[in-house]
Amino acid sequence: MNYSVVKFARHLTITDIQILRDGGTILFTLAATPNAGRYRLQTPFLGEPRPLFLNDRQLGLGSPAEQELVPQLQAWLRENMTAERQEALHQLDSLKEWRNLPRDLLDAVPLHRIRTVLDCLLKRSA
Predict the structure, then answer these.
(1) pLDDT tens, 13-49?
(2) Could you give the CA distance from residue 113 to residue 18 in angstroms, rounded to a whole number?
(3) Alpha-carbon distance 13 to 104, whole Å?
(4) Of 10, 39, 71, 116, which is most buried by a Cβ count within 10 Å?
């Protein structure tokens, strides 16, 4: 599922949102922005803080490159959130396992992944 947001007359898109089977590496592609590229948030099983990579280049923790991403992810989430998706996120948060999810919860999984990335970045700047 591809979600997008229009911001400041530019069309920012986030696509190809995935999680790897290594325990939590999150991948996504950001397009139509100066900081476009393939992003990867490393699995928490390799330790905290989780580094963020852009096109296989590690970004500095709390760096301007990471901070530039924060308002973009916030805007994307805000523009793609509905009351139903918010409720689905709460349900996903309460589950210990994600198996055989119903369609409404499956549709919220990409939002959950991006929110996880955003939460990691916000923790660094706090």
Answers:
(1) 999 999 999 989 999 999 999 999 999 999 999 999 9
(2) 8
(3) 22
(4) 39
Q: What pLDDT score does 11 carry?
A: 74
Q: What is the DSSP code string of the chain?
A: --EEEEETTEEEEEEEEEE-TTT--EEEEEESSTT-EEEEEPPGGG-SSPPEEETTEEPPTT-HHHHHHHHHHHHHHHHH--HHHHHHHHHHHH-S---S--HHHHHHHHHHHHHHHHHHHHHHH-
Listed in sequence order, the residues at least 6 apart from 3 whose beta carbon sits closer than 8 Å to its beta carbon are: 13, 14, 76, 79, 80, 110, 111
Report the amino acid identity of residue 92.
Answer: L
Q: Note the pTM of the prediction, 2 decimals.
A: 0.89
What is the residue whose two structure tokens read 């928490």? 44
